[in-house]
Amino acid sequence: MLVSTRGRYALRVMVDLAQHQSQGPIPMKDVAQRQQISLKYLEKILPVLSKNGYIVGTHGKGGGYQLTRAPEKYRVGDILRLTEGDLAPVACLEAGAAPCQQRDTCPTRSLWCELGRRVNEYLDSVTLADLMKESH
Amino acid sequence: MLVSTRGRYALRVMVDLAQHQSQGPIPMKDVAQRQQISLKYLEKILPVLSKNGYIVGTHGKGGGYQLTRAPEKYRVGDILRLTEGDLAPVACLEAGAAPCQQRDTCPTRSLWCELGRRVNEYLDSVTLADLMKESH
DNA sequence: TTAAAACCTACTGAATTGGTTGGTTATATG
DNA sequence: CATATAACCAACCAATTCAGTAGGTTTTAA
C-alpha cells in the first residue's frame, strides 16, 4: 500500500472543499459527515495542508476551511506528498533513508527509481479540477 | 511504501539465481552472504516462490535453488505480486478489501485504479533478464 | 553415518496505522 | 458580554505490519 488513509482522506476533503468553493468557509464537521470520516481524525490530518498554504482556516462561528487557489492549480501529487510524507515505492528511496550499502551494484535500484518517477509523474498530471469531474 | 523487503529481497535473490544459473543448485547460504541478507529471513520468503513453480529447491548436500525458466520468462510484476501479496496503491483496492461504501460516488476511485494499472503495467514490462544487465 | 541443504513453526521488538480523548484558543452572533 | 461554534493542539491506544530470530524437522549427497 503506497497511500494510506491520511493521503486518501486529505484528497477527498480537498475535492469536497473544491465542490463547495463558492459557499465561503466550510466547517470540517460538514465535510466529515458528507465523506463519512471521523472529524477528530480529519483534524489531525489537516494542519499540514493549512501550514503549507493549501487551505486557510477561519476560527469561530461561521468559520471553516477554504481553498486558496483554483482547483486546476492543485496537483494531486503535491497534496499526497505533503500528507503522506513521501511517495517512494521502496524504503531505500525514502527521503530520510540511510544510504544503501549496495547502492552502486544493486541490480534493482534503477527499477525502483523509474517506478517512483512514473508514480510521481502520473499523480502530478492530475489536478483537483480533474477529480471534480469524476463525482456524479 | 509500496514494496517491502519481502518483495525487494525476493527480486534480488531471483537475479542472483539467474546470474549463477549455469552452476547448478545454488544454496541460499551463498546468496544470503552475497546479498547481505539474513539467511533465516530469506528462508521465510522463498517458499511462496517454490510453491508456485518459480524456483525449485533440492534438499541435502550439494542442493540449493534453481530457476525453472529462462530469465526473460520472469516478469518482475509476477514475482512482486507473489511475495507482496498485492501491489494495490491503496487499501480499498486490495484483493481482500471490504467493498467500499462510497465506491460509486468516490471522486478518487478512478485515480487509484489508473495508478494501480500503471504500476502493474510497468513492473510487468520488466523481466529478470533486464535486471541482469544492470549489475556490473 | 554425517554434513548440508531445504523446509516448518513459533515468537518478538519496533514501527506504523487509524484512530480516540480531552482539551485550548479564536470569533461571529444574540 | 455570554455563548455557541469553529479551528487547533497534545497525549494516548489497540491492532496490525515489518523485519527479523530461534529452534527445530526432513531430505539427500558423499
Strand order in the largest sheet of chain A = 1-2
- In total, the number of strands of chain A is 2
Q: Count of DSSP helices of chain A?
A: 7
What is the oligomer described by this structure?
A: homodimer
Shape of chain A: elongated
Q: Could you estimate the helical fraction of the residues of chain A in percent? A: 40-55%
**Largest sheet of chain A at a glance?**
2 strands, antiparallel
Rg of chain A, alpha carbons: 17 Å
What is the overall pLDDT average of chain A? 96
Which stretches of chain A are poorly predicted, pLDDT < 50 over at least 5 residues? none
Class by SSE composition of chain A: mainly alpha
Q: What series of H and E elements makes up the topology of chain A?
A: HHHHEEHHH
The chain pair with the largest interface is: A-B, 40 and 40 residues
Strand content of chain A: 5-15%
Terminal Cα span of chain A: 27 Å
